[in-house]
Amino acid sequence: MIYIIGSGIAGLSAAVALKIAGYKVTVITKKIDGGSTPIAKGGIAVAISSDDSPEIHAEDTIRVGDGLCDVKTVRYVTQEGRHAIETLESWGFEFEKGLRLEGGHSKRRVMFKTDETGGEIFRFLLNKAKYLGIPVIEDKVTDLIVKDNTIRGFVTAGRGIINDAEKVVLATGGYAYLFEYTSTQPTNIGEGMALAFKAGAILSDMEFIQFHPTVAKLDGETFLMTETLRGEGAKVVNENGERFLFNYHPKGELAPRDILSRAIYMEMLKGHNAFMDLRDIDNFDQKFPVVSAYLKRHNKDPKKDLIPISPAAHFVDGGVRVNIRGETSINNLYAIGEVSDSGLHGANRLASNSLLEGLVFGVNLPYYVELEWEGISTNDGIINSIRVIDDSSSPSSLPLEQIRKLNWENLGIIRNHERLNKLTSIYYPSRSRPDILVSYLAALAADIRTESRGNHYREDFPNKDPKWEKRIYFRVFNS
Ligand SMILES: Cc1cc2nc3c(=O)[nH]c(=O)nc-3n(C[C@H](O)[C@H](O)[C@H](O)COP(=O)(O)OP(=O)(O)OC[C@H]3O[C@@H](n4cnc5c(N)ncnc54)[C@H](O)[C@@H]3O)c2cc1C
To answer: What integer pLDDT is reported at residue 479 of this predicted model?
Structure first.
């Protein structure tokens, strides 16, 4: 039996592809409609138009990745994009006609369906999995069982030990929910990374976290105010109605994501609030039906009201280190999608490349599961060995909400040694608390990387340093 952990685009596409290829598969997931996929909006990047090519898509990805992309992986994913999309379509999924242009892309290449592409793909894949008779079971995986560097099974909260696993595929998403302000769902606290790390798998690039500049939160419901809104004339203002972004960048609302996130965050630090002003967008309800429905749910009128926004943790570039097959450093343990670090994103993700990554690695998994194990290489970085502290008998009482606040304030958009050091002295490599372990590793990596690169910004080291064109790896210390 091949067990897939997680029911986002990566897990469900792998489950469907493996089942069609004749394998026995079961999906175990903490919450079926948890994760980022069901709420992902914009679309999925793939070079299919006549004036585009996988090579140009690769160049864009590498430029945004700021010196840390794994070029082999970038070429692989951009080349395989078309095949992955065609496979999804051959299963019955229909994209809308046309391609969208997004920030960082030099060509129109974002395929979409309505304003909720991720949700549409999620619902389609879930139905397909059910139609094929794949069990999709809600349960939480709490431990991996590994002997002689080979996966033997795993433990779940509800079912205890599962020991008929020939292979295990982690597709548990990222850890953006470990921040007070986030665009993702509560399931995503990095549990898959913690499980893999404790079991002996190597992690990498944990310091790179992408913040989205404009996320609304009305009555507790977070909602991504997409880039397209700003492209269509939405303005960002403070409580005095000032378009303060021009104080930070001449392009104002249309400046790059990282600069916008920093600018809005700085304004908030000065005691101001940030709002999105949608009043100048004509035909708002027709153009943005999903945003419009969100505003209506919370009694906001885009023609009259200003919408409170903030930057928020959105996506994590790093995770369980894998090769292009999705193999981790542990035999028969795979990691695909946001939980993994294939090197596609480097120090910063190009918009709409993450749904693509999940789909390519999921759809192609059947080609690799019978091949002899290759594992991963760590030649392009430095390895840090970390001793896990067994706190099972007295787990930390630090509440998750406090961790999220601490991370937002100290591991967020603007970092420095003092703040990161504060975190690494509060957190520790916990055996029993994945949220603490993952926060510890991310803060440690951010402290070690004494430069600013991609989405990692250090005010005490504001420039990029060529000597840091290397990866930070973590593995568990075995004495
Ligand atoms: C609001 C929003 C909009 C986005 N828009 C886009 C976009 O337009 N284009 C794009 O390319 N990317 C977008 N992204 C990013 C993209 O959605 C994600 O990177 C991608 O969906 C991740 O897919 P995944 O399958 O790896 O994981 P997820 O979809 O995050 O799924 C993780 C799964 O793991 C399960 N899980 C977690 N822990 C456990 C555990 N311990 N045991 C069992 N199950 C567990 C969860 O229940 C969940 O089912 C967006 C993200 C957000 C938050």
So the answer is: 61
